[in-house]
Amino acid sequence: MVLDLLTYAGNRENLHDIEDLCLFVQGDIADRPFIEQLLSDEKIDIPVNSAAESHYSLAVLDPSRFFRTNADSGRRRGIILRHARSDKYPCRRSGNVESLGGRCHYNLKLQSPESHPAVLDLGCGLGRHAIAFAKKGFRVTATEASQRAIDHLQSRAEQLDLSIATHVCSMLEQPFHQSLFDIVLSYNVIYHGRKSHFVEAIGRVWNLLKPSGLFYFTCPLRKDGKYGYGECIAPHTYASTKSVTPGDIHYFTDRTELCEMLTGFTICSIDLDEGYWNNKGEEQFFSNWQVLAQKVEDYSNEKQDVGSD
């Protein structure tokens, strides 16, 4: 990923030859909420800050710009020094070595725009998955609660001459007809809320998928580093103080309960993704399920019990 504010020295065209190898994000390294969200969404392991605002003339005329962009932004967020300690933050375990995300990512990559043309990126964030699918020729729709994130995705899609339909909405307010998509992708999204919200989201995805459609999503286990911290608002549900945005509500599941909630789906694969990330300077363990499931055609979702908290 390449981050730049594109001020006096930034030139977007310098990346022309490597467009397919990187994701460009226009933003300010000193914008704390934006950078922390970016590091979390994109699971950045090693940030590198190369001579930002370091031109001699500018450093002399306005040294505060250099301090803000380099020393202050890195010190306050632990972004540069702590993330760069590669002996601490490369550790990431996955249930299968076929790819970084194991069998789920691998099986998802096997799909083609001919067999599964319509893709929904539910809770797309900055849109890296939506962009990746669109580049491969899929017909992509992306939804996100943040207008800023959708604006970024649209700008990026226009730069790459890609067509991606976007909507600003919550995960439980998808404005689509039933049986519209061949693949629904929801990366780090549907566990935000109570168990009933999680189950309701699964049911809504079932409705959105075509017969035999595929559902890929991630969710945290109860050994994840955020579990047990903050206010417990329901069983296994916390307004976690260890989240990127403290106070975010997370529901944590186990394998048995996860399988029970996926009524109406055949589970193709479940992978364990674990490792460490830098949470404001603190090494924090993460443990997530990566799930790929297929819609069962003869199941009536209208009878599904959304369960209790």
Structural overview:
With 309 residues, the chain is α/β, with parallel strands linked by helices. The protein has two domains: 82 residues, 3-Layer(aba) Sandwich (Rossmann fold); 212 residues, Vaccinia Virus protein VP39 (Rossmann fold, 3-Layer(aba) Sandwich). It is built from nine helices and 13 strands. The chain has an eight-stranded mixed sheet with strand order 3-12-13-8-7-4-5-6. A three-stranded antiparallel sheet has the order 9-10-11, with no helix packed on it. The protein is globular and about 55 Å long. The C terminus is likely disordered.
List the helices and strands and how they pair.
Elements: E1 2-4, E2 24-26, H1 32-41, H2 56-61, H3 63-77, H4 80-83, E3 92-94, H5 102-109, E4 118-122, H6 128-135, E5 139-144, H7 147-159, E6 164-168, E7 181-186, H8 195-208, E8 209-220, E9 231-234, E10 237-239, E11 249-251, H9 255-261, E12 265-279, E13 282-295
Parallel strand pairs: 1-2, 4-5, 4-7, 5-6, 7-8
Antiparallel strand pairs: 3-12, 8-13, 9-10, 10-11, 12-13
Low-confidence stretches: 56-60, 73-102, 301-309
Total helical elements: 9
CATH fold label of the largest domain: Rossmann fold
Q: Gap between N and C termini, in Å?
A: 38 Å
Helical amount among residues, as a percent range? 25-40%
SSE order, one letter for each helix or strand: EEHHHHEHEHEHEEHEEEEHEE
Strand order of the largest sheet: 3-12-13-8-7-4-5-6
Q: Give the amount of beta strand, in percent.
A: 25-35%
CATH level-four homologous superfamily name of the largest domain: Vaccinia Virus protein VP39
- How would you classify the helix and strand content by structural class? alpha/beta
Shape: globular
- How would a crystallographer describe the biggest sheet? 8 strands, mixed
Using only C-alpha atoms, the radius of gyration works out to 20 Å
Q: Could you report the average pLDDT, rounded to the nearest whole number?
A: 79
Assign the CATH architecture of the largest domain.
Answer: 3-Layer(aba) Sandwich
Q: Tell me the number of strands.
A: 13
CATH class of the largest domain: Alpha Beta
Query: What is the count of structural domains?
Result: 2
